[in-house]
Amino acid sequence: MADLFTVTAALAIRFASGEKQIMIERLAYQDGLLFLPTFWTESGIDKALRFVAGPIKGDGPWKVGDAVVTVLGCHGTDAELANEFAYWQTHLTQMGEAYPAGDKIKKMMKTRAATVANIACPPDPSGKLILMQTKRQGHK
User: Fold this and answer.
1) Alpha-carbon gap, residue 7 to 66, rounded angstroms
2) Taking the CB of residue 88, how many other CB atoms lie within 10 A of it?
3) Is the pTM of this model over 0.70?
4) CA 55 remoteness from chain centre
């Protein structure tokens, strides 16, 4: 199929717990994936941003750690997620140009990434920041 970050179709993620979400915005981060679910604009990026730890594998469906990412509507359509996505599309239409541009969203995601991925950034003696891995677990 394609690279997870170039696919333009709506994507769904299923976690080992069985929980499913739609990934509206996504980007690679450290050893995993950052994503924003539907209606993230309502809850705010700080509350909505999710990190999934683990290597990203495959060409569709994809594996990210213990989670599986598929194109929404493929491999056994999920009516609940399809309905949620339809509501999201209506919401986007109502937002119009108020929805942030893709580059702005990615910048906001990157700015908050270390917090959601549980990565501490203590200064070293030279005054530079060093990324240091702390506890990591599935999605948040």
Assistant:
1) 21
2) 18
3) yes
4) 14
Strand-pair category, 20-23 with 25-29: unpaired
The alpha-helical segments, DSSP class H, found in the chain are 40-43, 45-48, 79-95, 102-116
Residue 8 has pLDDT above 60, yes or no: yes
- Is the distance from CB of 67 to CB of 89 less than 8 angstroms? no
Token duo for residue 55: 């290597």
The full set of domain ranges for the chain reads 11-133
Q: State CA 59 to chain mean position distance.
A: 17
Interval 21-49 mean pLDDT: 93
- Which pLDDT tens digit goes with each residue over 77-115? 688 998 999 999 999 999 999 999 989 999 899 888 877
**What single-letter DSSP state applies at residue 11?**
E
